[in-house]
Design brief:
The structure is a single chain. The chain starts with 18 loop residues before the first helix and ends with a helix. It is mainly alpha-helical. Among the domains are: 64 residues, no CATH class; 59 residues. It has a two-stranded antiparallel sheet with strand order 1-2. It is 51% helix and 4% strand. The longest helix is centred in the C-terminal third of the chain and has 18 residues. This is Nucleolar protein 16. It is found in: Nucleus, Nucleolus. Pfam families: Nop16. One of its GO terms (cellular component) is nucleolus.
Amino acid sequence: MPKAKGKSRRHKYSYNLNRKRLYRSARRRAAPRIACSHIRHAWDPHKSVAQNLAEMGLAEDPNKAVPIPKKLLVSGMEVESDGQQPGKKIVRKPYVVNEMELEASLPEKKSNTLSRDLIDYVRYMIQNHGENYKEMARDEKNYYQDTPKQIKRKINVYKNFYPEEYKNFIASLKPEKMEVQ
């Protein structure tokens, strides 16, 4: 297939274009991307990043916020400096930090679940074979040709995710076995 005309020629550099000005104006227009909604709502676009964070009571530089105490040698004795900086800044928006602490203290929601196919597979295997993993490995429904150890691991994952459901399932299987005998 032939090349498009003009694609192979060398592009000329434009000396009249001021690239510094273009780059600076693009940087100035770009607003900082803020992930936390509490900070986003309290942010003042007319102030600098350092001023905004200082008003919220947040640190701009973590190394300055929590300094590592340096040991000073004063006439042969070791004295630790406390790292306090003179002239503390006034926090005008303390609600931002309070809301973030409250949000961080909430327990994390467990959202992991198993697929319906895996649950059905494990229940079928337990229902037909009990605890015999070698027999489960030779079953027709073992489409992925799982080894006995892999099947055992899947059953243990099911036990850990749904302990109550597993206990109820095992309890419902016992009367069926009694009827068969």
